[in-house]
Every structure is written in structure tokens, then in C-alpha cells.
Amino acid sequence: MKVKTLFFLLTLILVSSGSGFSQDTLRIGFPEFLAIALENSGQMKVVGTNIELAENQTQMAKDQRFLPSLSLRSEHAIVPSVDSPGDYADDQIYLDPDATNDWSKVGLYTRVRLQGVQPVFTWGAINKAINAAKIAARATEEEYNATQAEIELILYDLYYSYVFALEIERLLTDAEDKIEQIERALEKQREENPEEADDTDEYKFRIFKAQFDIQREEVAQSLHYVKETWNYALRNALGIIYEPQVRFLDPVQLKMEHLGFYQKSAKDNRPELLALELGKEALTEYIESLKSQNLPGLYLGFTTTFASTPIRPRQPNPFISTPENTFNTAIGFTIRQNLNFFQAKTSFERSKLEVSRLNYLKDSQQDLIILEVNDAYRKAALAEVKVEKTGEALQVAKEWLRMEQLDYDFGFGDSKDLVDAVRQELELRLSEMEGIFELNSTVAKLNKSAGIPLTATRNN
Amino acid sequence: MRKVITTIFAVFCIGISSMQVIAQENEQGIRTLLTERDDQIKELLGPEGQEYSEEQRENLKEIINGIIDFEAMAKTALADTYNEISAESRTEFIDLFSTIVRDHSMNKLEIYRAVVTYNSIEVEDGSALVKTMAELDEVRTPVDYKMVLEGEEWVITDMSVDDLWTAESYKNQFQRIIARRGFDALMDSLRKRAAQ
User: pTM value?
Assistant: First the structure.
């Protein structure tokens, strides 16, 4: 028994460890990453439902065109039979003055009523209501686009954060090699020429190494954080580890336009503004629909009633009502006129106020968007200069480091200068990478603020 | 008159198009030359982590440095001083300089396993600037070459790794050493460095 248990446990351990190794790494490009993360986004699902609701509202408005009022009602009861002491024929019972209900015999009474109203002419009230609903649905789509643009921007930063972290990790690995080289050189110097060894160099190098270790840990932590966030955004399927397909962080190849271009583009393309404009349009159309609803409308109405109680005979005399056995139908035109003019007037006023509110809202939204564009433009322009100038500084640092390395190789070098050069070069490499990330991110923000699709930002 | 203009125009067009054809041929020639050299190096390198015999290292050194014009490189590295020293010193300098560069090229053989992408080859008046990107272990390094046509063969007169030109870097260093300690001190240190 014990052997069996042990065998079972071993199998379980092997299977579980096997499943750990079977995880596949899948490298995905930004479009795939975006598609999966958007699909998983709860926020997108909420706004997606809003679109469906708006489409449903449009359909409801459309449904008003055909038989907006149609009802079928059935009634059922137990009713007594009729006793005719005069022994009159079934179709002449109404002539028997002694006829009474006969509760010794009961039967099923059934009545069915079908009623309907079909609008014929309503001064376009229905069509305007449909148009208003359609425009409102388009406004909801723009709201959806606005939310998507916000989330896409966050996901863009998240995707390239991973690439950025990988780049920094490689930079530090490369720097680690250089640091080891310096350490070896310092040791060699101490061994070969102890009288020339400078304690200051030693202290400086040790401080630099400790600071480097902090940087290393920072990068490791940030990479861990990015991976966790990726996993959350992608809700990784079991056995799949996602990684970015893009391995290098390059600056976006995009010539920045003048500020006016982005401001105009924002006014023309920002989905928030388009949504407000469409909302205003929908409301105006709704007001027209309300106006039409207060004019007399022509409708076609019909009603059909059929009742049957087999236990009670039908009386053919038209003056004798026998609701238990009847069939009648009527069809005709009707004119409807709402008379609640005060309420209607108040309703118009309310809608007009709503239109004014939307106008003000659009103006204020536009002001905020222009401020956002200006700020994004400033940051992008600054980031562009920062990348360019850091690149220039890095080139100088590379030349300096090369010179110090050559000096060291040729025996003229100073370890202090070499440490300084390595540190400066590493700092500038990190700054350059940070600058590139910042540039790409700010350009993406600028494009988003101007309503330009994110695809215009990507270059790899 | 019109005929003359037409003829001049036609000759001009032919001249332009033939220059374009020559430039394209040169570009292709350079690309083939560098690609073949790269393939040869990779073939000699063999699988990753391989130990190399002295003979293999010499072969590699020859192929890696075979198309480098060390004289031109040394001339750039020494700048004006090159014309001021004796022919004997020049010969020694070129010899020492090429030894140092050749030895340096063998320090990290792994880098020759990098996948090379040719970004651009610009040919003009018998000289060329080749820009490539070498990628190894997810690290990209720009590697560029300055080349000249010597007779019928293209040779490298300077190369840049990670945006640093070799001859230019040496030039800066040598000039400082010469300015501070004189040409003889430079030669002494070169001799020591080459002997290592």
C-alpha cells in the first residue's frame, strides 16, 4: 500500500513539474498584444455594451413604424348552462320568460380579443425619432472610440515598457562586463605597481559598483512588475508566456508637424468632440420628433372579438346581447391629438436647455483638449531635443571612454578617469534609452490628443 | 544646332545612366565582398564555444584583416606626423599598428557570429561608406566601413564599431601622446603593446 502511495505521489510530482516546464513563450507584436488586451479589458466591455444598448434603442424606435400597439387578450371562465322551462328551441331561448341559469351544468367560456393600431401619418415623428436614435448610436460609438484611444495609449506604454526594460537589462549586462574589466585592471595595478595604486580610485570604484547594483535591482524589479502587468492585461492562457516580439527600442521616425496642425486635427478628429457634436445633433432631431408628436396624427385601428361558450346557445336576435357567444370585428381610421400643451412646452424648453448644455460642454471639452494638445506638443518637442542632445553627449562619452581604454591599454591611463568615463557612458546610455521611451510615449500621447490613430506612432 | 543639342543631351543621359550602372555594380561588388568575408569567418568559427588552434586563429586573423589597408589606416591614425617621420619609422609604425589592430580583432571572436544587416552602401568617386548593423544575442551594434577602390579591389581604410572609428580614435590618442611625450614615446608604447 505504501509503495502504491509513494508511486502515486511521485507521478503527481512529475506531472506537476512537467506542466511547469511545458509553458511556451510566445512573442507577440504590438497589434496582437493590443487585440488580446482590448478583448480582456473590462472597460471596453462596458462601452461595448453601451453601443449594443444604443443599437437596441434604434431598433426600438424602428419598431414604432409597424403596429406599435398590438394586443391579443384571452379570457376564460366557468359559466352555467341555460334552462328553458318553456322548452324553447336553442336559438329562441330569449323568448322564454322563465329561462334561468342552470348551475347543474357548467361549461367553459372563452373570449379572445385582438386590437391593433398602425400609424399612417405622423408628420415624420417616428422617422425623426429613429434618426435621433441612430445619431445617438453613432455618438455612443465615438464614446467607445474615445475610451479605446485612452486604453490603447496605456497599452502602448505597457508594451514598450517591456521592450525598454529588456534594453536596460542588456545595457547593464554589457556594463557589468566593463566593470569587471576595470576591477581586473585595478587589481592588476595593485599587484604590479602597489606604490601607484590610489585609494581614492578604489573608494570611487566601490561606490560606483554599489550604485550599479542598486540600478541592477531597480531594473530587475521593474521588469518583474512589467511582466506581471503583462500577464494581467493578457490574462495568459495556461502554458503560454507572452513576450514582446519587438526587442529594440528605436525612436519613432516621425517628423513633428507645427502645433497648429495638431490643434486642428484635435478639433476635427477627437472622438470626445465628435460624440458631443453627434449628441447635440441627436437631441435636435429628438426635439423635432417631439414637435411632430404634438401635431394630430392619423392612425389605422382595428379590433376583433370572438367569444365561445358551447354550453350556452347563441341567440341570433341582434337586440339580444349574448357576450358568451359572439364574433365581431371593426377597422377604421383615428386621429390622435395630444392636448398636454403645457407639458409639451416644458419638455421642449428642457430639450433646448440640454442642447445649450451640450454646446457649453463641447466648448469646455475643446478648451481642455487644446490644453492637452499644447502640453503634449511641448513634452514631445522637448523629448525630441532631449534624445538628440543625449545622443550627441553619448557620442562624446563613447569617444572619451574609448580614449581612456586606449590610454589604459598603452599604459598611459588613469583608472580614476576610466571609472569616470565608464560611469558617464553608462549614465548617458541609460538616459538615451529613457529619452527614446519618453519620446515615443509623448509622441503617442500627442497623436492621441490630436485624434491621430496610434498606428501612426509605431515604427516597429 | 538642334541636332547638336539632342546629341549632347543623349550623350549626357547615357553618361548618367552608365554612371548609375557602375555605382550599382560597385555596391553589389562591395556587398558580395563583405558577405563572402562574413560567411568565411562564420564557417571558420564553427559551432559556439569552440576552442581554436593557433593555425585556426591565424586563418581567422587573415580573413578578418585581409581586406584592411593598414597603411591607409596607419596614415590616418598618425595624421600629419606620418609625413614628418622617416620611411623606416613609417614602415615600423605601420607594422606595429597593424599588429595591434590585428591582435585586437581577435580579442572577442564571438562578435563575428553576429547577424549582419546592410543598411546602406554609398559609393562615390572610388570610395564607399558601408553602414551595417550587427546583431548578436539581442544586442545591436552599428558597424560601418570606409572603403576605397585600389586597382580593381575594394579595401577597408577605416571601420567604426558602435559609432567609433578605429583610425580616428587612434589618431586622437596618438596625437595626445606625441604632443605630451613625443613620437619616440609613442613608438615605445606601441612596441610594448604589440609585444603583449
Answer: 0.79
